[in-house]
Amino acid sequence: MHSRRKQRTYTVKEKQVAVLLVQDVSVEEAARILGYPRSSVSSWSKQAEKLLEFKGPKTSKTLKGQGRKELFPGVAAIVTYMKDVRRDEK
């Protein structure tokens, strides 16, 4: 049986280094130099602009913004308003 390679997660800093290297050499060469999967380096190079403009902590694994979007934005403000109204009624 073949042992599967353990799936790794890379920090934003590691991804930025890979993207900068891809600008000088090919995706395949950058992947070989850094020891990262070619497909990962390729997808990061497609996200180059977002990765290089990222303002958060460099140790973060993602660019943020994942997850389900709220169906009703501002629900928290409405709940706060309702609580204030109920509190004033007492």
UniProtKB/TrEMBL annotation:
Name of the featured protein: HTH psq-type domain-containing protein
Family annotation (Pfam families): HTH_23 (PF13384)
Source taxon at top rank: Eukaryota
Organism: Phytophthora aleatoria
